[in-house]
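Can anyone check this?
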Amino acid sequence: MGRGRLRARLPPTVKTVLFVALALFATGFAWTWWRACMRARSDGDAPTRRLPTLAQTAIGFGTNFFDTLGVGSFAPTTALYRLSGMVEDARIPGTMNVGHTLPVVLMAFIYIATVEVDVSTLTVMIAAAVIGAWLGADCVSKLPVRPIQLGVGAALLVTAGLMTSSQLGWVPLGGEALGLRPGPLVGAAAASAVLGALNTIGVGFYGPCMILIALLGMDPKAAFPIMMGACAFLMPVGSARFVQRGAYNPRAALGLMLGGIPAVLVAAFVVQSMSLDALRWLVVGVAVYTAALLLRGGGRGASPS
């Protein structure tokens, strides 16, 4: 696949630009959320006057801890909410988006600041994912969801099998590059754009992105700033819309945020201390987990969110 061997560190000026942009997105979302809560309180909305319960905060900690490891947070959050009945089904998507947004932004800050990755690869793939989500959402949303879920799920299982064979020394696969040459980067950007578009219909970004990075011969750690950065730019805008429509549970969303922020701080340093071999096995596990969700969702005709 024409794997590159770029090992350039992210220039401070580019880091600054990314951090400023992330801060603006996060601040805009936080301001929208705060103003909505203040208006709701003035109107006498009881849920906005109470702090989240211990269970709601614990869900925020647990789901964001594993989200920081690349497992994803939407599927376990959905399962826990439905099992406990603490959030109405109609408000689960909005609650998850609103509550997980600021923890995801924090993940992006941490990984962009601490994980070494080529600047071109990082910025191009993040930009491609955002563009794909914006421009491709309408087109992708019109496609039949079940075949997409089944196809992506099957592809992830095949790729996870190849990576497992590589880890066992049966097939040469993988690498330690921190970036891509222009040729492979064009293909990676196209794939990232497709993943960004598919993310809008419930095909998670993390698992496929981790597999893509591994197949391109890059260090698995490089996937973290890319996938967290992409989602950190995507989520604030969508979450602000849920807040404006009031289509979420304020207490549960606050619990996700309050529990999620410390969880991100703990889990991020777990990832950074893991060996390359352990990270590759983590990628395999995430791929199998994501594939199972997609295949189950495709089989039932529902999104695995």
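Reply from J.R.: I decoded it. The longest helix spans residues 12-42.
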